[in-house]
Amino acid sequence: MEQEGLQEEEREVLQSIYEGDECFKQLDARTFQYKYGASDPIKTLLVELKWGPNYPEERPQVNLDVFYNRHLLAGLKAKVQQLVETEAEQYLGMSMTYSLFEFVKERFEELIEEQPEHALELEVDKLSVDVQESLGAKREKKEQLTKAQKRRQWNRLDAKGEKPRGWDWVDIVKHLSQTGSKEDGNPGT
């Protein structure tokens, strides 16, 4: 009960502090995002904090696995998450969302230095290597059919592309007349 009151109070404070700030976004009553480095699309970071039911007695959940951060290296994401979680330990029992967002803002330039300038070019190189490897594999040639052969195959099939029912059935009367019966084979007995 006490935590809900503290959460509501902190929510109002965050809304008043970040009013008009396009980098701040409140997704729901307990989830907040802040975007850093809006000038360069490669060197940007989005930090998402989600409060648990016992917040601020427990630290918020830090999420960097959002679509906006898909260009970041996994090592950088892990480092930022670990730093934010470590920083949150000292604020347990107090409102900490603003402090954590500001902590990342202060250390953003230092953190983002690990991100390469040309992350997209690395992905393109990987793709081109894959294309070259697939060209090396030999393709199987399809059997070339003439128009007449294709037409004959098509005429043998029904509308569903299947052979008609009974296409391989044997005409019983014709079969028996060819084989004959055992009694007919010995006329002398």
UniProtKB/TrEMBL annotation:
Residues in RWD domain copies: 9-111
Classification via CDD domains: RWD-RWDD4
Signal peptide: none
InterPro entries: RWD_dom (IPR006575), RWDD4 (IPR042770), UBQ-conjugating_enzyme/RWD (IPR016135)
Record-linked SMART domains: RWD (SM00591)
Taxonomic superkingdom: Eukaryota
Chain intervals for the UniProt region annotation (Disordered): 138-162
Protein name: RWD domain-containing protein
Organism this protein belongs to: Dendroctonus ponderosae (Mountain pine beetle)
Lineage, broadest ranks: Eukaryota, Metazoa, Ecdysozoa, Arthropoda, Hexapoda
